[in-house]
Design brief:
Elements: E1 3-9, E2 13-18, E3 23-28, E4 31-34, E5 39-42, H1 46-63, E6 70-73, E7 78-82, E8 85-86, E9 89-96, H2 100-105, E10 112-122, E11 131-132, H3 134-139, H4 145-168, E12 171-178, E13 180-183, E14 186-189, E15 198-202, H5 212-215, H6 221-232
Helix pairs in contact: 1-6
Thymidine-5'-phosphate (TMP) binds at residues 92, 99-101, 121, 129, 175-177, 197-199.
């Protein structure tokens, strides 16, 4: 498959057209950002670690019956994915209260959420990804009621599958964000699942192993991502068959 022109460049990934209309190439760069692009930096190896980590998680979710856009790893920094019509909404599940939930609701950081809670955000950096509800999604036509239901069901299913996977590696999946898109008549999980878009704490020490290390200036960001990969048995040096 031939890489074509750049379709879109985000804060940490770039997306390219290919000679197949239904396929894109997603490139994970070493760039990292926080606070809607206010804080940015480049971290050596981050693109490679996230690309390979995302491939592992997407493959695992597929094995567990979650339909995703992921096709194959192409190189250290590139993956082939299906070309989705993205829904401009972020789906967040939280198992423990932290981050913006504590800022908005004044609840104690680290509180267990039973049952886990769910939030929708509008994907819009300029507006700082405001929280929205299902009525907004319906009134502005961002997704149909059936798509909203499917996003909720799939996000909770991903929570069940990945909470267990990370628990087996001695980690707590604190919260995460997913994005979905349309591919003919299907709704598929798109974007990425990496420590950039979730929070992971060591089960015993509650040490942060995710992008909060960058947001909070704790250092050792890529080292923590590599530690997460190691604990899940992801081989970051496996040869890539193309
Ligand atoms: P929050 O506490 O900042 O709302 O974040 C909740 C989860 O969603 C956390 O795991 C980080 C993730 N997230 C993103 O990946 N991208 C975003 O733009 C935002 C706001 C959150
Ligand atoms: N994803 C957003 C950014 O990169 C927000 C964040 O992760 O803090 O700026």
């Amino acid at each position: 498959m031939k890489k074509g022109e750049e379709l879109y460049s985000g804060k940490a990934k770039s997306v390219f057209l290919t000679d197949e209309t239904a396929r894109l190439i997603m490139e994970f760069r070493d760039d990292t950002s926080a606070f809607d692009g206010e804080k940015i930096d480049q971290l050596d190896r981050k693109g490679m670690v996230n690309n390979r980590f995302n491939a592992f998680i997407m493959g695992y979710l597929e094995e567990q019956g979650v339909a995703t856009h992921f096709d194959a790893l192409l190189s250290d920094n590139e993956s082939q994915v299906k070309h989705l019509d993205m829904i401009p909404v972020e789906c967040v599940v939280r198992n423990i209260a932290t981050g913006s939930l504590c800022r908005r609701l004044g609840v104690e950081d680290g509180l267990d959420l039973e049952p886990p809670t769910f939030e929708f955000f509008l994907k819009n950096d300029e507006l700082h990804d405001p929280m929205i509800n299902e009525y907004h999604i319906a009134s502005f036509g961002w997704a149909t009621p059936a798509e909203v239901e499917s996003m909720k069901v799939q996000t909770f299913r991903v929570n069940e599958i990945l909470s267990k996977l990370f628990a087996d590696g001695g980690m707590i999946l604190v919260d995460f964000k997913l994005e979905f898109g349309r591919f003919s008549d299907q709704l598929l999980l798109g974007d990425e699942f990496t420590p950039d878009g979730c929070r992971l704490w060591d089960t015993d020490t509650r040490e942060k192993l995710d992008k909060d290390r960058f947001r909070q200036g704790l250092g050792g960001v890529v080292e923590a991502y590599e530690e997460v990969a190691l604990r899940l048995g992801v081989d970051l040096e496996a040869p890539i068959a193309v």
